[in-house]
Write a structure and sequence with these properties.
single chain; 392 residues; mainly alpha; Hydantoin permease; 77% helix; globular
């Protein structure tokens, strides 16, 4: 087992794939629409482009700890991982986290369905139910084929989203550079410096729950360096992309924070000001990819968890996955009826506060302590158990 501890590359298709699932799950309705960037960064002032590094580093630390626990025990659902990470109080705290995490996994995909409704209504002029139906079908189709399919799907669309974000953000920043640079040079603060820091941290807190999507896609991870590589790539990629969009949206201040229509889809507001016809295709493509990939990441994570509870004796794994993911998406659709802004500004913020006590503190204390113990067991040949296959 010494080779498992000391060998292994940082950057492998698996570690990069996990990082891609993290980014594709992060780059959802709130990210691509700009509503998250305005609520948690832009509306606070000139430090907005710098706080994403703080937030994503926090998420990356949680991701690394949970990937390590999962790797050491060859388990990949969030329920199994927290039970190992939270020993010796796992029966109480682990179960509480399991319940909260399962409920919280409704919010991000619900925001995707609500964002899809806004997209199809504002951009394409089609009935909102059509976008919801298309996303539901695509999400189920990807989820039923297992972790490898989710990694490949997430990686492929991540490349597409990076290209779209780079193009849109590049043109948006260039066109509004005078406004953006003026805000930064003049040290403009719209709220307070302390409030700006806190909302950056709060963003990292509620985004930390995204580890469940990354861990669910990490089937087969056997080396410590792979877990490190996934965290490094994820922090870098998510920070760069988030900061780029934050900078671009700063060019639309203060309208994007005060006008009701601009606040609903701030990125679209800035894009429309550019008057570049091709963006009428690029932006909807970006937003739709973001909606699909986030829905897939979170639904797949819950699919694995619920698969331990329901239809346990069903031998057809693909049919089992289809039934579970479809049922969960119907519940998600009901949650989506409260609207995109309410989910992002109220639901996400509340989740961030809860995660302080049931995720951040326990994972950085009990989780880290248990990892040290598990690594000694690994060196003694007691871990990992027989590697599970990627079923489905």
């Amino acid at each position: 087992m010494q080779s498992t501890v000391n060998k292994g590359k940082y950057f492998t298709p698996l570690s990069i794939g996990v990082a891609a699932v993290w980014f594709s799950s992060h780059c959802g309705a709130g990210f691509a629409s700009g509503t998250q960037e305005v609520a948690y960064f832009v509306r606070h002032g000139w430090m907005a482009p710098f706080w994403p590094l703080l937030a994503m580093t926090l998420v990356g630390m949680v991701m690394y700890v949970t990937l390590e626990v999962g790797r050491l025990h060859a388990v990949y659902t969030y329920a199994e991982i927290v039970q190992k990470a939270y020993e010796p109080v796992n029966k109480v705290l682990g179960t509480l986290y399991d319940v909260i995490q399962t409920i919280s996994m409704l919010l991000a995909p619900a925001a995707c369905l609500a964002g899809g409704a806004a997209l199809f209504n504002q951009i394409l002029g089609l009935p909102t139910f059509l976008g919801t139906l298309v996303m539901l079908v695509l999400t189920v189709l990807v989820c039923i084929f297992g972790a490898k399919a989710v990694r490949l799907f997430g990686t492929a669309l991540t490349v597409g989203m990076i290209i779209c974000v780079a193009i849109i953000a590049g043109f948006g920043i260039a066109a509004n550079w005078d406004t953006i640079s003026g805000i930064i040079k003049n040290r403009t603060i719209y709220t307070t410096f302390g409030e700006g820091i806190w909302w950056g941290v709060l963003y990292g807190l509620f985004q930390s729950g995204i580890w469940a999507a990354g861990a669910a896609s990490a089937v087969g991870m056997r080396y410590r360096n792979e877990a490190k590589g996934a965290a490094i790539v994820g922090i870098t990629l998510n920070t760069l992309m988030l900061s780029a969009v934050v900078l671009m949206i700063m060019g639309g201040m203060p309208t994007v924070a005060t006008d009701p229509d601009a606040r609903l889809l701030p990125t679209l507001f800035v894009v429309n000001q550019l008057n570049i016809p091709v963006f009428s295709v690029v932006y909807p493509a970006l937003l739709f990819m973001a909606l699909i990939t986030t829905a897939v990441g979170f639904v797949f994570a819950v699919q694995g968890r619920l698969g331990l509870l329901f239809l346990k004796n069903m031998k057809n794994v693909k049919l089992k996955n289809a039934i579970i993911s479809t049922g969960w998406l119907i519940i998600i659709w009901l949650v989506a009826q409260v609207g995109l802004l309410a989910i992002i500004q109220k639901g996400y913020a509340s989740l961030g506060y809860i995660y302080i006590f049931i995720l951040i503190i326990p994972m950085f204390t009990l989780g880290v302590k248990n990892i040290k113990r598990y690594r000694k067991m690994e060196e003694e040949g007691l871990l990992p158990p027989e590697i599970k296959s990627d079923q489905g």
